[in-house]
Amino acid sequence: MKRYVLGRIIRSVISIMVVTCAVIVLVFMGVPRDRIFRQDQASLQKLASKPDELTNYRYNKWEDIGYLDFQPLSEMCTNSSDDYAACMVPGSDEFNRVVEQYEADGYTITEYETSDLVFASRDYSPLELVWNFLTSFIEIDHPNVIQDADNPDLERRIYIGSDFNGIPAVKCTGCEHEYLIYFDSSFPFIHQNWIQLNFGESYPTFQRRDTLEVISSGQGELVNAPTTFPNGTTGNSTLNLHTCTYKPTASMDRMDLNKFDTNYANCMSNYSSPSMINLSYIFGIAALVLAYLIALPAGIIMAQKKGKWQDKLGIIYVNIMISVPSLAFIFFMKLIGNSFGLPDKFPQLGFQDIRSYILPVIILALLSTASLMIWVRRYMVDQSNADYVKFARAKGLSQSEIFNRHILKNAIIPIVNGIPGQIILCISGSVITESVFAIPGMGKMLPDAIKANNNTMIVTLTFIFTALSIFSLLAGDILLTFVDPRIQLSSKGETR
Amino acid sequence: MEEREVILSAKDVEVKFRVRDRILTAIRGISLDIYKGETIAIVGESGSGKSVFTKTFTGMLEVNGDITNGTIMFEGKDLTKLKKDKDWEGIRGKRISTVFQDPMTSLNPVRTIGYQISEVIVKHQKKSKAEAKQMAIELMKQVGIVNAENRYDDYPFQYSGGMRQRIVIAIALACRPDILICDEPTTALDVTIQAQILKLIKDLQKEYGFTTVYITHDLGVVANVADRVAVMYAGQIVEIGTAEEVFYKPAHPYTWALLSSLPQLGVKGEDLYAITGTPPSLYDKVIGDAFAPRNPYAMKIDFEEEPPMFKITDTHFAKTWLLDPRAPKAEPPKAIRNLHERLLEITDERGDYHG
Ligand SMILES: Nc1ncnc2c1ncn2[C@@H]1O[C@H](COP(=O)(O)OP(=O)(O)OP(=O)(O)O)[C@@H](O)[C@H]1O
Ligand SMILES: [Mg+2]
């Protein structure tokens, strides 16, 4: 079982990476690269009068995002010449030698519009795109990460200490993060900074932040709370001390020195509202629970009253739900909701108001009830025709005994196994629903990122959605072993 | 044959099914007395109504079926009057039990063997769970499960087909029923296991003294276990008698055909005898003898009037005009004339059949 699950996890990770890499190649090869600036007209406008700087800006961005390798002349000369000064003079022998060398290496040499300097650029091939992504994808924090010339005595070790609340935590000095593993009151209660996934910087929306940080850090207003700082002082602060990272000694200011006794002073803030990821989880889980609460009993009743009016009513509902486009359904539900005073858009009442959540959750849930109901009904009907049911009747059990003791336990098996499918449905449903209600979650982020040509964000979200679906499939199979005695997840040759 | 106590008495039973807007008459007036402690076999080709007929004893007809005529008396009660599951409480599974054909699917795959046995004991005998477990383990031992204590909590998939059928039998016998209906209990099993199961049922019958109704295609089985044999064709019993009478002095041409088509009787190098034609459609009213169109001995009257049950001996009856004194004498086909010796040979080969 353990070996099987491990094998499955490895295969799952491989499939996720394959999908992600495929999307990387698609996005980077398919999206015309000029498009990424469409949402960044302000910056381009500012540089419009300085064409060379504009060129640098554009190539720097492309390099940051991962399209190409960009080297202005200064970099070319640093990298490939022993005589930097001579190299920097266009037309000189050394200059010509370096240029030729770059051209031979497959670089394109371009002259700036106004100055007579040149720069080299080389587009990455699909293979390089994938390679670059994979080699920088996982960052593991360790005590030798920080190299700070101003702080030669920095202690380097990982240890178990306690946090500012006195709760045990795995801490580190010399690492990027002060806390490697810690507990707090927000879901899923145990958190880690040890292994960081790196998808690159978000651009052109949410600039200068890592994509993962964009979708995983809180939203809304800063929260000021009484805090005890590492050096013992107390005061109101918005800082989330669990997130602190190393700040070079040179940039430590007086405020930092007032609060912190170490260099781990670069902290994120506490926000009043959940992050995009958490918001999507909240909607997804609430909708999933509601969907099962509706569809399970409904499907069971349909099966028990097969052919009667309850069944027919259910089938009409399912047919309507399947045939009406979900967008039309969403807008229809919105109309109904509005007449009950529920808001049109999420931000109208905001995070704090329960009414912001009601309509989207109901819609998300109803969207997945149809398929669930029809499946549950089918499983139940299938099971009630099974031979063991006939034999149970011959044993003299009553209908309700047969149903509760025998049919239900069998029908629950495929239902449990189907939960992951429902999770995926909820995710894909959330893309539309979140957009329609302007809910700042991952679901809305995906079309937004596509519209804005935020390539790194697209890749990040693809990764998350793929990982969610693949791991929920695995979770479904593991759940299955709990309800079905016949299934023991094991690879060949392995015994229980 | 001495007077014996009748345990179940069916009179003129007729069963109809609604199929879309058509009516199918599956059982067309069967009268049958079943005696206490006997083993009666019901034979007949597929679709002749064997299962449907016995299902009426336990009210197990599918929802689209009804008993439209007749009575089935059991312990002074008319079983045809029982409609709801509540009415059947105390009879189905307790006094009259059924074992079905396929042991692979008769047990709930996700419940333990032990649960499925003790469930009936708790239900019908009002025992506590612990008592039921003790009784269930005892039963498991009786039906030949080795190491029963340890296998109590196993699931069906951990049992072989033969073992599962033993469990099914254990469940059916858990409440010491008066009648055990075995609907082709061994067809899904291989030959050696078949013999073991047959012997098991026989042994248990000797011990408990229940009455067995045996539905089967396998006439070899019949010859071995049955005291009496009823031959069914198109929803009727066309011949009934003691096993000896039906095997060695069969009177109905359908029985002749059935016996000559026994694969065991096939002579090397010769084609197996097969009954030609198909049974009549049960949707239509049958005129005359239902077997007439396939009967090489058919006479004019067979197509016009339904034959009555002719009495041959006190125990042997057949429903064919050939027994009318006015009918010409018809000889059974050669293949079945010296059936006695040949059957003995067959059962000798399968030594287990000697009970
Ligand atoms: N629920 C039902 N609805 C309609 N017709 C049925 C139903 N159950 C049985 N029948 C019909 O009744 C007839 C008798 O069926 P039955 O199952 O008793 O045959 P059988 O003699 O047991 O055959 P087999 O040897 O194949 O088990 C068949 O023609 C069958 O199609
Ligand atoms: Mg049958």
CATH class bucket of the largest domain in chain A: Mainly Alpha
Q: Judging by the overall fold, what is the CATH architecture of the largest domain in chain A? A: Orthogonal Bundle
**Largest sheet report of chain A:** 4 strands, antiparallel
Task: Output the strand order for the largest sheet of chain A.
Answer: 5-6-7-8
Question: With helices defined by DSSP (H or I, 4 residues minimum), what is the helix count of chain A?
Answer: 18
Distance between the termini of chain A: 7 Å
Q: How many strands, which pairing sense, and closed or not: the largest β-sheet of chain B? A: 8 strands, mixed
How far do the termini of chain B sit from each other? 21 Å
Beta-strand fraction estimate of chain B: 15-25%
- H/I helix tally of chain B: 12
Number of strands of chain A: 15
What is the radius of gyration of chain A computed over CA atoms, rounded to a whole number of angstroms? 29 Å
Q: What name is given to the CATH topology of the largest domain in chain A? A: MetI-like fold
How many structural domains in the coordinates of chain A?
3
Structural class of chain B, by secondary structure, is alpha/beta
Largest interface: A-B, 23 and 30 residues
Low-confidence segments of chain B, given as residue ranges, are 350-355
Bound ligands, named by name, code or SMILES:
adenosine-5'-triphosphate, magnesium ion
